[in-house]
Amino acid sequence: MSSLRLEEIGKAIEREIDRDRLPGAVIAVARQGQLAYYEAFGYLNKQEGVEMPKNAIFSIWSMTKPVVAVGALILHEEGLLALDEPVGTYLPELSGRVVAIGGDPQRTVPARRQPTVQDLMLHTSGWSYNYGDTPLGEMAPEGPSPISSYSSGDDFIQALSRMPLRFHPGSEWDYGVGLDVLGVIIERISGQSLGDFFQERIFDPLDMIDTAINIPRRDVTRHAQVLPVDPLTGASQESHKHTDLEFHCGGGCLASTALDYLSFAQMLVNDGSLNGVRVLGRKTVEYMTADHLGPDVNTERLWALRNKNGYGFGLAVAVRRGSGVSGMMGSPGDFHWGGRNGTYFWVDPEEELAVVFMTASLGDIRPYHRQMIAGLVLQAIDD
User: Fold this and answer.
1) CA 354 to CA 183: how far, in whole Å?
2) Are residues 160 and 84 located together in one domain of the fold?
3) Does one domain contain both 116 and 19?
4) What is the Cα–Cα distance from 285 to 263, expressed in whole angstroms?
5) How far is CA 5 from CA 10, 331, 334, 376, in A?
6) pLDDT confidence bin for 144, thresholds 50/70/90
7) Least crowded by CB within 10 Å, which of 44, 128, 295, 355?
């Protein structure tokens, strides 16, 4: 990668910080197994004038989801979890699912088939974040933040058991709570809390020293804070506290640093291993990062997400189908996902590239910054 062209990353991020469109950021880029770029910009807490350190801790929200998928695949490799098995096999409370007609929980039909473990990772289960202005929507958790407020995984599953599905499993892609359900399955199979399972099976092997469900109190001073107002709407906003979470939600409860998550991403670039430690088998990573959405799956809601148009979906990651169509540059087979706070990662196996962009930026400005970072990194490839 061109060191001169990599300098454009900092110039662009500083412009966004100066315009109050971004509080600060840390970005880490690895190519061919080497750290090519690692810099911090702006503020950890702009209101208090605290500058951004490289080891800042970020609420990564939905970037938790690929970690949960890896955890589930570890259990699959050990013969403890079958991917095409109905969810009710592992969580009997969620057996016998029905589908609401027109968003009305009082009018239901039996599901054509039951949601599977694989559906949970593909967002094709029928458990959604997006119920719209319907009676069913009033029963549903809106996203990771309200889900994290449950007192336990069992309470969350009980609440979900009272709700019909929004659509027949396997018929649509719709972003939802599937990875939260999968996290509870991991807990029941392993006999551990999700945080402890992650620590033993993923974080310790990958030396992810600052990644956890709850930020330790000694480290809360490194927690990145959002701007007090949304730069596009002017609405007030505040950061999630990210301490003392009782429910270890698989859909969005992790906090991490740029280098920690880069280790996770590099493990995927390396087909499941890092520094001589194997977390997943090569064929397992190939399966995780393949496009699993067949022609009969309605992808309207996936493609409506900015910069996801033209993408398929793997196990908790969006997978690029071709060089064109999408609003972001990339290679066929690259995969990515982001979090509610603006965090973002992607892996390009063809270019042996792993990128982690950490920030604390809520709202609709997130897709712009993700597209900006993708272009800035890819333009620096010089070979």
Assistant:
1) 25
2) yes
3) no
4) 15
5) 10, 20, 22, 8
6) low
7) 295
Give the pLDDT confidence score for residue 106 in this predicted structure.
93
Q: Is the predicted pLDDT of residue 132 greater than 80, yes or no?
A: no
User: Structural domain of residue 53, as residue ranges?
Assistant: 3-61+209-378
Residue 199 lies inside a defined structural domain of this protein: no
Rg (CA), the chain: 20
Looking up residue 125, the CATH number of its domain turns out to be 1.20.58
Whether residues 31 and 147 fall in one domain: no
What CATH number is associated with residue 235?
3.40.710.10
Residues 127 and 64: their CA atoms lie apart, in Å, by 18
Neighbours of 232 (CB within 10 A): 11
Q: Which residue spans within 208-270 are E strands per DSSP?
A: 255-256
- What percent helix, strand, coil does the chain show, rounded to 5? 35, 20, 45
pLDDT digit string (tens) for 65-100? Answer: 999 999 999 999 999 999 999 999 999 999 999 999
| Cβ atoms 214, 223 nearer than 8 A | no
- pTM, two decimals, is 0.97
Residues 6 or more apart in contact with residue 297 via CB below 8 angstroms: 124, 170, 171, 172, 173
Tokens coding 303: 């493609």
- pLDDT given for residue 349 in this prediction: 97
Q: Are residues 80 and 57 in the same domain?
A: no
pLDDT in tens, 5-30: 999 999 999 999 999 999 999 999 99
Same domain, 296 and 368: yes
Outline where the chain has alpha helix (H): 3-18, 64-77, 87-90, 117-122, 135-139, 144-148, 153-161, 178-190, 194-198, 258-269, 282-288, 300-304, 366-378
Cα three-residue angle 269-275-277, rounded to 5 degrees: 90
Which of 125, 156, 189 delimits the end of a domain? 189
Which of 166, 175, 131, 172 has the alpha carbon at shortest distance from 299? 172
Domain end (from 189, 222, 246):
189
